[in-house]
Amino acid sequence: MIQPVTIWDDKPHIVIHGSKGAIQIALVNAYSWTLGRGSENDIPLSDKCASRNHAMFQLVGESNYFLIDLGSRNGSFVNGRRVTIPVSLKNGDHITLGETNLEFYCPETITTPDNNDENTDAAATAMLHKRRLITVLVVDIRDFTKLTQQMDEHILSETIGTWFRRAGEIIDRHGSWVDKYIGDAVMTVWIHEAGKGSDTVATQDMLKVYRALYELYNMSNELNQQFELPFQLRVGAGINTGYAMVGQMGTSEHPDYTALGDTVNAAFRLESSTKQLGVDVAIGSTTYSHTPYAAVLLPLKQYSVELKGYSSPTITYAGTFNELGAYIKKLDDQV
To answer: What pLDDT score was predicted for residue 7?
Structure first.
């Protein structure tokens, strides 16, 4: 549990206004902070109008903080506007959770102590910016704009907040983290430990990606039973494997990686291509080549697609979530 601190003007922090005055809490030394009425939260709220698990602050990259509603009953608001998807916070934003008012502060420039010791966290961080073999998964909520037009704001917030909360739990369980929120989509990265010059991805590493995606699909279907929606909540996905520059934006004790480069960009383009192809998921050719028994067990069709920003057609393998589930079951049956 995070303890209140005093005078954190030079660090990212929130100010909670309560009946006993204002309390400052620093948002440091971690990458997510949950808030709610339950005592298990990082920042418990003494507020009868707050949900047990109400919202979460998440740090993405070096200094980009998001507020994510976790499916709360009474909603989360930033500057008076209700949060339905993760919202990037700016210095001085006013936040309301239930009847609790907060202010978010993040200095534009965060200084690092001047220390020449090569064993410091700063030195360790600099050493971990390098080229790595990764798999990127991008998952997008389909027809989100139509949902916002046809759904009651309270139900929409609770539904989408629940989706993001459970998506984070699934991704964490399969050994990764949410690297980016882009509107109604999430980007996740798995870093592969290819050993001694080998470009081979371990079987279990690749299966983590597929299992996480299939769980995200099943979770989305469960929400269709939990909430009264005007039409079925659906998701689509793109998966791409390749080399990218991977940087550790955190410290050695609290690492936080992000990836940049063509491998990442192509994953987003592949996800977009699923709408053109009328399928659920599209994977890059390199991902396909690293997929165990793909030619025998993975019943995806090969397509040549024109990806935005690419001069020549790209080979992708695409299909439905049911086909992905059948592949996972066949592998499980072999174990």
So the answer is: 55
Q: Which of 58, 227, 59, 238 is nearest to 140 (CA)?
A: 238
The pair of structure tokens assigned to 301 is: 């069709």
Residue 150: phi and psi, rounded to 5, are -110, -10
CA 216, CA 125: separation in Å to the nearest integer? 32
Pairing of strands 13-18, 100-105: antiparallel
* Residue 38: other Cβ atoms inside 10 A: 14
- Directed axis angle between helix 321-334 and helix 203-226, to 10°? 130
The answer to whether the beta carbons of residues 179 and 267 sit under 8 Å apart is no
* Token digits of residue 105: 């502060």
- Here the tokens at position 212 are 């996480």
With both helix axes pointing from N to C terminus, report the angle between 153-173 and 203-226 in degrees, rounded to the nearest 10. Answer: 160
Has this prediction a pTM greater than 0.70? yes
Which amino acid is it at 47?
D
pLDDT confidence of residue 113: 39
Alpha helix segments (H runs only) across the chain: 121-127, 144-150, 153-173, 203-226, 262-277, 285-290, 294-297, 321-334
